[in-house]
Amino acid sequence: MSARPARVLVLGLDAASPELLEAWTADGTLPHLRSLTLRGTSGRLGGIEGFFVGSTWPTLYTGTGPGRHGFHYQLQIAPGSYDLQWSPASDFVRTEPFWSALERSGRRVAALDVPLSRPAPGMSGVQVVEWGGHDAFFGFHTTPPELGRELVRRHGLHPQGTVCDARRTTVRDHREFLERLEAGIRAKVTWTGELLARGGWDLFAQVFTEGHCAGHQCWHLHDPTHPAHDPELAAALGDPLRRIYVALDAAVGELVASAGDAHVLVFTGHGMASWYGAQFLLRGILNRLGVTAAPRTRTGPRVRRIAERVWTRLPERLRAPIRAARAHLPAGPSAPARPDLRLHTDLERSLCFPLDNGQAVGGIRLNLAGREPGGRLAPGAEAEAFCDQLAADLCEIVDERTGEPLVRAVRRTDALHAGEAQGHLPDLLVEWNDLVATGTTQLADGAGATVRARSPKIGVVEGANDYGRTGEHRPGGWIVAVGPGVPHDRLKRVVPLTDLAPTLAALVDAEMPQADGRPAPELLGERRAGADPTRN
Q1: In this structure, what CATH number is given to the domain that contains residue 57?
Q2: What is the mean pLDDT of residues 320-345?
Q3: Is 325 within the bounds of a domain?
């Protein structure tokens, strides 16, 4: 490695669409990112097969795959039981983040608002956890603690907070939401710039999550083909994603200028496009296939049981106006939402059961003898045959909207991700087809929200998407690197996400030997000695 002292500035644009970044960089909409691409090397980052929603950030900051770090969703199965655990209250991510490895090597690190990361005990550098972000688990924490008091006193917390889901239907609703996101970007740039100017760091990482929120909430206004697209609303607001990406681009420009001659990396780890699939049908499909059984109702008021039975049998044309009426009722005081830790499955009669894994890819866990307390499937040939048949049955289901398969593929987790934490993951991954966008009952009178799935084995299973988001993740990201010895070039390969943390370590002459990935030589510039440029 070169003996030249390194300083590295890392800026994350959480869940920004690589396609939009490339298009708007090319046409000059994002001038600061365009400048970086003209000075350095840019291209695509790989996704994580089957787990590109929840596992992206843990994989990115540890350099290890889901089979080793063990995180895939907020609620996860506790191995050896049927208990769901709130992940942040358990072991959470089981491998080491890059900032801990770098500090152990004597490097000075600032890790700010990195999503899905917990406060690091004993950190001697600077850490900010959930000042403003998406999917906040731990609450606002800083190292050192007095930094948190200073940030709140001088800048407050993020104007939007850490929850962006809400029912927005008017110009005012969306305008206020976008203004809060922009104000959050401006405040973060201000306090980040102040920390940068104090110096004393080898690697400084900051992540902006406003593009993540805008993508989930406003994709239907960006995309005129979305079922919930409202031309009048879009005309009044303009393109919300373009507006937020322009604000993020300005933030990048200001912070890169403040960092002087630092080696710079700007990236997004996964993307965003229209909400798709039929995750809300998975449990019903498994019930129809006879592999999962609904729980027997033994308790609860009789009236409620009858009401639930009537509701499930109502056709969607009658459910929709009832939902719409309920949405306009005034909200009363309520306790904070608590995660539902029930599996909602009669495990004595089920060969498998669904596990939440995000909306884009469903999860299924086998009720395996010797692993689950009351396992019914024998490991080995019986379980293998069951998986093959279930995959075939799922892939036979047709989406009546398109006449094409509803499920693109069913993947075996153990064929994709090995490691000591594999027991924390689902066994099968149901990849929904994204040929058409799925609407939501919360917008546009439910246009495109209903999905009818059919096959010889399930007959017809119908349901509607009640989730209000209109944007959903896609695998794969984007990166640009600028620094001494980094040429103006386009990456000739897709860089694995597991390579990013080892690359950051290599830039400050440190190592992450426990990582699955390796330093990406194309992003190292002068510090590429010892990296393998032929490795795929």
Answers
A1: 3.40.720.10
A2: 53
A3: no
